Sequence to fold (267 residues):
Amino acid sequence: MIHELSPADLRRFHDDGYLILEDLFSREEVAEMAAAAERLRAVGREIAAALPASEDEASERKVEHAGSQFVFGGAGGSNGSCRLLRVVWAGGCEPAFLDCGRDARLTAVVGQLLGSSTAVQLLNQLHAKYPNDGLEFEPHQDSEHRRYGTPEWHDVNGRGSYVQTVVAIDDSTPENGPLVFYPRSGRRGHLDPTSVRRRYRDRPGVPALLAAGSAAFFGPYVVHRSAENRGAAPRRIAINGFALPGANSRPYFGAGTGVPIELFRRG
Fold:
C-alpha cells in the first residue's frame, strides 16, 4: 500500500529536514533483511581476515565482491583489528536489500518528496553497528558526501535534489546508536563541514527511535549523527539514496547506479 503524504507531511519534511513513517515494512520482511545482513557480515569477516596489515588505521579499504563493495577500517592483518564499516550496493550480494530500495512503498514517498516520478538511485547500502564496536558518525550533512559545491553536483530543484532513506532492520533505542537529527538545521543549505561538526558536536538533537520496519526520509542539508552502539543488540539499517535526474555527475559503485528509475506510476 502506497503512503500518500499530506501537506503537513511535506511541510514537516521541508521545514525540519526529515520525515519518519512507521511500519512501512513488515516484521517478516525486515527479518529477511536481518538474515541477509548477517550473511554479509560473515562474508566481510572472511575478506577482512585475508587483508594485509596496514599501519594507517584511519584510512578506509574497499574490496569488491559479488557485485557489492565491502568497506573496512582499522589495521587489518592477522594481528590487527579490521571492522566492516558498510557494504556498498548491498543488493549485489543480497538481493533483499535492492528489493527494499526499489519497493514502491519506499520509492513513492521519495517521489512525493522530490516532486518527481523518476530519480537516479545512488545508494543501496547496509550499515550495521554491533555492541561496543566503536562505530559512530560525527554531525554532518549528506550534501558533504554528495559533493555539493563542486562540479559533480547541481541542485536542480533548489531544495537539495536528493532524498536519503533509512529502513530500520532492528528497533532503534537510545542505547544502540540511533540516528540523531537536528531539526531545521538545514534551512541555510550546505554548510562548511568543519563548522557543522564544531557547532553540533555537543548538542543533544532528536533521536529517531525507529521500530524495525519503519523508515526515515531526509534531505541532504539536515545535520545528523549517530553514536556508538552501547546496547546489547545490533542496530542495522538499510540505506537508499535518490537524486533528481541531472543533479549528480559523480560515479557511484553499483550495477544499478546512474540509471533513472520510475518511483511511482501516475494516474
About this structure: The first strand starts at residue 18 and ends at 21. The mean pLDDT is 94. The CA atoms of residues 4 and 164 lie 18 Å apart. The two ends are 15 Å apart (CA to CA).
